[in-house]
Amino acid sequence: MDSPFSLHAALALIVAGDPDVVQAVWTSLYTSGAAILLGSLAGIPVGVSLGLGRFAGRRLAVTLLNTLMAMPTVVVGLLIYGLLSRQGLFGPLGLLFTPLAMIIGQTVLAAPIVANYTLAAVAGADPRILPTAMTLGAGRLHGAWRLLLEVRFGLLAAVVAGFGRVIAEVGVAMMLGGNIRGTTRTMTTAIALETSKGEFAFGLALGLVLLAVALVVNLFLNLLQHR
Amino acid sequence: MEPLISLRDIEHRQGEFALAIDRLDLHRGRLYALAGPNGSGKSTLLRLLALLEAPQRGQAWMAGEAVGARTRQRLRRQVTLVQQSPYLFAGSVKANLEFGLRLRRVGRLERRQRVAAALAAVGLDGFERRLTGELSGGEAQRVALARALALQPQLLLLDEPTAGLDRERLQELEQWLSRLPEGGMTVVLSTHDPGQPRRLGAEIILVRGGKLTGPLPLAADASLDLEE
């Protein structure tokens, strides 16, 4: 093992654009990107209706959402594995160990986070927004849309937080993707598995990229929360 | 003449607070002042008149049409409420004034004219491009007023429009308010300044403990103890 030089070697891999490193970074980015897109499409409406709605079962739904948010990634991986494996309900589709399977799993991870942050943004919004929009002529739907525009930084923070969770997780990517080189190997699965095979510099290179992504995401989140 | 808005047998409870109105008719082109101590129900009444809330019991009519689940949103477009500390949407003054006009599908040219006229009416000519975050408290208040005026509502509701003004600004705004109904608009404002209804030449609706007295013609107000 080349431990004294591995940081140097890791940087060299990044700078040289090592195809395996680039491939893993790209797979992470596009699966997490697709997952956060789908997770937001599902999570934002849920968060808005829980934040604005006054209906029976709302508290139960919020509790459920909090539970989902705290669900370990390997449990989500396990449940979806059950659905996608050959004997599972969706087994015939042959999705297991494909990027699509990872996207599905990560969407399930991202949606509750986006919903929860959206709920917080909407519930914490200025209570005058909706009546103001309505007295100026908006219906409830249009008023809710205006409210979303007013809390847009909170919504963006919801999306960024969800992205932060899915890009950094291993459980789902490992169980549903399987770390197949060139197709489903992501930054996190590569770090976990390649390092154990002695490819320390490779793992470290990806770790550095992942850290950089996490740093950018959190700087962005910080910026948004101070708006 | 048919009233612009009528309330009948209204009961409306909010928390520990209850408003009960047997009968209230407001006519076109008049100025009404809701007078009464803080917490007497003035703001709740304004929200009911703004058709923002449905009364738990009773019926409202707007220009002879019953207000119900199907008609509420359409009829609400004839009313605008300006809150005591109004909320301005993030963005430009122009975008705020155009919000309701766009919802009413007013064309671009007419929008521009109405925005300019409304801003001029509140003494803020040329404020179109200013951002709402950069306005002073007084300017924000006036932008909210202009935003309501631009919609040319039949019924304009103002919650404590003169609260916190210095004497000079108060006089100026009161003169301006007293002239508003000349164009046929009905104006209802709330106040806890006992001298204000007389200065405005407004008919008084006395709100006390969730019950209404009035509207009383101006001459009658001498007998009322508004100070209480």
Describe this structure in words.
The complex is a heterodimer of chains A (227) and B (228). Chain A is mostly helical and 227 residues long. Chain A has eleven helices and no strands. The longest helix of chain A is centred in the first third of the chain and has 34 residues, at 19-52. Chain A starts with 5 loop residues before the first helix and ends with a helix. Chain B is an alpha/beta fold. Chain B has seven helices and ten strands. A six-stranded mixed β-sheet of chain B has the order 6-7-8-3-9-10, with helices on both faces. In chain B, strands 2-1-4-5 form a four-stranded antiparallel β-sheet, covered by helices on one side. In chain B, α3 packs parallel to α5 (137-149). The model of chain B has no long low-confidence stretch (mean pLDDT 86). Chain A binds chain B through residues 126, 128-129, 131-139, 142, 146, 149-150, and chain B through 47, 50, 52, 73, 76-77, 79-81, 83, 85-87, 89-90, 99-100, 103-104, 147-148, 151.
Helices, strands, pairings?
The complex is a heterodimer of chains A (227) and B (228).
Chain A: H1 6-15, H2 19-52, H3 58-69, H4 73-84, H5 99-123, H6 129-135, H7 140-150, H8 152-168, H9 171-177, H10 187-196, H11 200-225
Helix pairs in contact in A: 1-11, 2-5, 2-8, 3-5, 4-5, 4-9, 5-8, 5-9, 6-7, 8-11, 10-11
Chain B: E1 5-14, E2 17-26, E3 31-35, H1 42-49, E4 57-62, E5 65-66, H2 72-76, E6 79-82, H3 93-103, H4 108-121, H5 137-149, E7 155-158, H6 167-179, E8 186-191, H7 196-200, E9 203-208, E10 211-216
Parallel strand pairs in B: 3-8, 3-9, 6-7, 7-8
Antiparallel strand pairs in B: 1-2, 1-4, 4-5, 9-10
